[in-house]
Write a structure and sequence with these properties.
With 351 residues, this protein is α/β, with parallel strands linked by helices. Helices cover 26% and strands 21% of the residues. It has a 5-stranded antiparallel β-sheet. Strands 9-8-12-16-17 form a 5-stranded parallel β-sheet, with helices on both faces.
């Protein structure tokens, strides 16, 4: 192993003309120092690729961690040996991206922006429903969709958003558990799929309402979205209700002519595709309401309204959506859920 490393290093040194100069060993923290000089006075997070090459550190920089994806981010490489001091090391070339790269990146320097509130979870009190209201609730169905893309971009706050709306539907409005279908990141896969607010990664809890039962079964991949909507189409009748709640990431094509929802494993669902999937349901005179919290969400408004949906979106088709600055939720869907729940995530009444 050492002989292989020395051979590779000597080859690199000869190519770069540094073979006769004393070389400085660059540690992970040295690499962070070299890269971070380009992001002075900016609130960014840094990740490093496990199993790096023998010659380079590969670093991922999330340049806008409080914004939903797609957003500004970078990858870069730093040599593990340089012919100068760490303080005088040249800034590495940055490769600009809009989504995190594939690969097993682990936290190098990740900021907890919520302090003691980082572990805050929603609590929605159970409500006693009348017989008439229960009849409406029984004819109401919901899909909670949080794609996540991959574990680096699947923020823990998205789970909080989904838990809050799930509890609101079940506890506030009495919608039966079997009528609420969460499609979230990798579903019930036990692998780590969520980026924690405090740094690091974890497997998402499958229990959205803390009742000891696992509500999350399905991953947020396109085939599951299609099959779920097809099953609901065959089940739902005239004057039933379908509620669709979307959070996590979105994007748009060049010129913002089409928007899409980012699903798990880098899959996408475009605005016109969702409209086509919903049209047969709307043709049965089902009431469909859609809440979209992802970036570029407003690009869905025209397609969905044309087929008869009522739509609420966090932003236009050319804008990003943002997280809350003080609690681990996303701003638009958090305020929206507080309004329909008539209370915030800690049961404080909201008008």
């Amino acid at each position: 192993m050492i002989a292989t490393l020395l051979s590779a290093f000597n080859s690199y040194a000869q190519k770069t003309g540094t073979s006769n100069k004393p070389m400085t060993n660059v540690t992970e923290m040295d690499a962070l120092y070299i890269v971070s000089k380009q992001f002075a006075n900016r609130d960014v997070d840094y990740f490093i690729l496990e199993n790096n090459s023998e010659l380079y550190w590969t670093i991922f920089i999330d340049a806008e961690p409080m914004k939903g994806w797609e957003h500004e981010c970078y990858t870069t490489t730093v040599p593990k040996y340089i012919a100068t001091t760490i303080a005088n090391a040249s800034a590495p070339l940055l490769n600009k991206r809009t989504l995190p790269p594939a690969g097993n990146f682990v936290p190098l320097k990740v900021t907890n922006r919520y302090g003691m509130k980082s572990k805050q979870k929603p609590i929605v009190a159970a409500n006693t429903q009348s017989n008439g209201f229960s009849d409406v609730a029984g004819r109401t169905y919901a899909i909670i969709l949080s794609g996540g893309v991959n574990k680096i971009s699947n923020y823990e706050r998205y789970w909080n958003d989904c838990s809050f709306i799930y509890q609101t539907l079940k506890n506030k409005y009495g919608i039966p558990k079997e009528n609420i279908i969460p499609l979230m990141s990798d579903g019930a896969d036990p692998s780590a799929d969520m980026r924690l607010t405090t740094g690091g990664f974890s497997t998402q809890s499958l229990d959205l309402d803390f009742d000891g039962q696992n509500e999350i079964q399905l991953s947020a991949i396109k085939s599951n979205v299609v099959s779920t909507l097809n099953k609901l189409q065959s089940k739902m009748k005239k004057d039933d209700h379908l509620f669709i709640f979307v959070i996590d990431h979105g994007g748009s094509t060049a010129g913002n002519t089409n928007s899409y929802i980012c699903l798990w494993n880098n899959e996408t669902l475009f605005d016109h595709e969702l409209a086509e999937l919903l049209k047969p349901i709307l043709d049965k005179k089902v009431n469909v309401n859609v809440v979209l919290g992802q970036c570029f969400a407003g690009g869905f408004n025209d397609d969905l309204s044309k087929v008869g949906c009522v739509v609420a979106s966090a932003c236009t088709g050319s804008e990003s959506s943002w997280s809350c600055p003080d609690i681990p939720y996303d701003e638009f869907v958090y305020q929206w859920t507080c309004a329909v729940n008539e209370a915030n995530d800690n049961k404080v009444p909201v008008k």
